[in-house]
């Protein structure tokens, strides 16, 4: 890779981190609006038009609150815990392909921070590290409720990572690659004609059981309701972040929303075709042959439409996460563990065997 191309990719990585933080910031606003709508009450409407400046007001509040360290806490680890949770959440977004590549003459800019042939393995590895941020923060707080919440988070994440990994194996058996970009491109339909059947090349139609297992595990991995046992207020006050205040508390909250963003982005790539969209090649043919655009600009508009499609899928997924949070009650801890170990893992193993059989007999490819 040439030096200018390396510089462009560095900017793409920074843009990815910036977009992740911006979306996480406004997820706090969206969550309140959706909660207010579902509970038939007025949501945020004081800070700016339609309450759009509420996230900025929250940020000012968090930055200006008193920095508090509980007695007996390990100060270094108390600060390191939320920082690690935030860093790992952001790092996992670097390998997600938000679009194909833009062309400017001989220069190609890939709309993906880093393309590596083990992208899915990288996401899994980084997400697994995220639980250490919670564990360290819970232990360093010198509070039994924080420690119990952290232990819950660790056991919950380990339990559901197994089922999630097994669900992914079925997708990898079909695609034969760990590269998220390759998995996206394999869900492309290149046939002619204007029809909606393009979407049936998406993995969600070939792996419906695997998708259901994956999305249930994604709720558990991001500690979202109905699996928010690590911060269960009725039992543990605030769980692992009971003793946290100011921006350290904000880092934990933002990390949760960044994790939701990454989980929905990975789900879009693995099961919903990523940046692919119906009629895409017909649209490219229209731009190339029916308009006066140059080949490069026609290609770039075609690619940018893919980015729009990708973010539409991500925002739909985020809305679903919020809808479930304000609709379903929280599980009991024994129910959570029983679901993970006795239902999801056997189902995921069955899905692997079923996929292997269907591939062997040529039913799916």
From TrEMBL:
Pfam families noted in UniProt: NADHdh
Topological category with respect to the lipid bilayer: Multi-pass membrane protein
Location in or out of the cell: Cell membrane; Membrane
Stretches that traverse the bilayer: 6-29, 77-99, 119-141, 162-180, 200-220, 257-277, 297-324, 336-364
Function, as annotated: NDH-1 shuttles electrons from NADH, via FMN and iron-sulfur (Fe-S) centers, to quinones in the respiratory chain. The immediate electron acceptor for the enzyme in this species is believed to be ubiquinone. Couples the redox reaction to proton translocation (for every two electrons transferred, four hydrogen ions are translocated across the cytoplasmic membrane), and thus conserves the redox energy in a proton gradient. This subunit may bind ubiquinone.
Record family assignment: Belongs to the complex I subunit 1 family.
Protein name in the entry: NADH-quinone oxidoreductase subunit H
Species this chain originates from: Hymenobacter monticola
Gene: nuoH
């Amino acid at each position: 890779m040439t030096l200018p191309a390396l510089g462009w990719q560095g900017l793409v990585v920074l843009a990815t981190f910036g977009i992740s933080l911006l979306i996480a910031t406004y997820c706090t606003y969206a969550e309140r609006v959706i909660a207010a709508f579902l509970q038939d009450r007025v949501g945020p409407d004081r800070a700016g038009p339609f309450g759009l400046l509420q996230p900025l007001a929250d940020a000012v509040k968090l930055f200006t609150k008193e920095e508090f360290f509980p007695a007996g806490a390990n100060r270094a680890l108390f600060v390191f815990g939320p920082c690690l949770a935030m860093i790992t959440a952001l790092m996992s977004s670097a390998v997600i392909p938000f679009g194909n590549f833009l062309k400017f003459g001989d220069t190609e800019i890939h709309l993906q921070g880093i393309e590596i042939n083990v992208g899915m393995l990288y996401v899994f590895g980084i997400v697994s590290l995220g639980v250490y941020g919670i564990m360290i923060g819970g232990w360093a707080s010198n509070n039994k409720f924080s420690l119990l919440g952290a232990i819950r988070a660790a056991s919950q994440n380990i339990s559901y990572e197994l089922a999630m990994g097994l669900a992914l194996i079925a997708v990898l058996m079909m695609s034969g690659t760990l590269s998220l970009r390759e998995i996206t491109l394999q869900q492309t339909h290149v046939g002619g004609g204007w029809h909606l059947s393009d979407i049936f090349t998406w993995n969600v139609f070939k792996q419906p059981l695997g998708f259901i297992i994956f999305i249930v595990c994604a709720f558990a991995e991001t500690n979202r309701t109905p699996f928010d046992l690590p911060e269960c207020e009725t039992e543990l006050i605030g769980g692992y972040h009971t003793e946290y205040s100011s921006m350290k508390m904000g880092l934990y909250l933002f990390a949760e929303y960044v994790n939701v963003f990454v989980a929905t982005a990975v789900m879009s790539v693995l099961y919903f075709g990523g940046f692919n969209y119906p009629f895409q090649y017909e649209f490219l043919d229209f731009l190339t042959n029916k308009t006066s655009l140059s080949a490069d600009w026609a290609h770039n508009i075609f690619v940018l439409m893919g980015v729009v499609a990708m973010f539409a899928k991500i925002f739909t997924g985020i809305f679903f996460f919020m809808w479930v949070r304000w609709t379903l009650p929280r599980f009991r801890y024994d129910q959570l563990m029983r679901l993970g170990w006795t239902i999801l893992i056997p189902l995921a193993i069955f899905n692997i065997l079923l996929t292997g059989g269907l591939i062997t007999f040529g039913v799916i490819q």
